[in-house]
Amino acid sequence: METPTESPHGPLRQDTTSWAPLTQTLQVTGNSGGVPELVAGRRLVGPLQGFGKMWQKTYRIRLPAQSIEPSELIKVWKEEFPTFWPEGNRFYAPLVGISPGEVALISLQAGPMKLSTGVMVLYADHESFTLMTPQGHMFAGWITFSAFEDTEHCTVQTQVLMRAQDPLGEVGLIMGGHKAEDRFWASTLRAVGKRFGHEVEPETTIVCVDPRRRWSEARNVWHNAGIRSTLHMMTAPLRWPGKMMRRNDS
Amino acid sequence: MPETRISLNVRKPGPAVGIIDIEGEVTAFCEPLLMDAYTEAGDGATKAIILNFAGLDYMNSSGIGLLVTLLIRAQRQGQRLLAYGLNAHYQQIFELTRLNEAIVIYEDEPASLAAASS
Fold this sequence. Notes:
The complex is a heterodimer of chains A (250) and B (118).
Chain A: E1 6-7, E2 10-11, E3 44-45, E4 54-64, H1 70-79, E5 90-92, E6 103-110, E7 113-124, E8 128-134, E9 139-149, E10 153-164, H2 167-195, E11 203-210, H3 225-234, H4 236-249
Chain B: E1 6-14, E2 17-26, H1 31-41, E3 48-59, H2 61-76, E4 80-84, H3 88-96, E5 104-106, H4 109-117
Parallel strand pairs in B: 2-3, 3-4, 4-5
Antiparallel strand pairs in B: 1-2
């Protein structure tokens, strides 16, 4: 039997290789930084599994259409993803790059705190790519990076569909976390625009998709990355003798 | 804005149930069409909306995000969202994104109609 290549809407597009394979818990391999033990073994969580209000935040810049093809922009964005992040934050890209199913570790500056967490590449093709958060991340959700063309512009967009994972995360977002996140992605988009030779100010659109808080998810606080990162830092001296002994053995 | 490659058909097999037949591609660009179809399917005394994915050709991550916003909208109206016609690939994506925890997937239309009426 022949595989159909046409649909009533035009050439049939394929998405089978763009999605991450089904996974229950995250495996961390081949990353050169971050704190793998705070990510390995965690379940993925989307906006339906979190605690707080659900938000859709869209950050967007428009470049002149003739300056860059959307697919070329996405290719560069994937390849140079960590370089666009604001100073003080680190994205430890997987060795094979941004590819479906790969896990990246992250170190974020949240006020005086350093948060260690990670993300999985949920989806990636030549038009867009999406990162999904694990248990413990500041929020539960998806972050989609895309570029598309209309008659005059190449629109470059970051869209976050998220809710705080637990009550502490919700308080953090209210007490400045939302603003910090808005600054983070606006700064990232400015850097992407600059990479392609344009100084552009991002537009931000924020919609509260669901104003309800889901108290059944309040226990997610057990996995909170802020608490776990702090504990990991405080207990570092206890791990030093073990590390030294392993080094001497090898 | 890129063109949408989707056809949506709304059916009302009963006063409490609406079915949306989805054919083509589910991406962020079909949001206005899908929301219009939802408004038509979910009018009056509708208690359940069934999404028929038998004609789904392609869905990216923005499309999944769109289904989440549709689900929340239905829930806020006190309506349930059900699905059928998903092939093995898309069932796996529902599982991966954990959408299957909120939108129950059925084998076919009779099974989803029976669940919607229960």
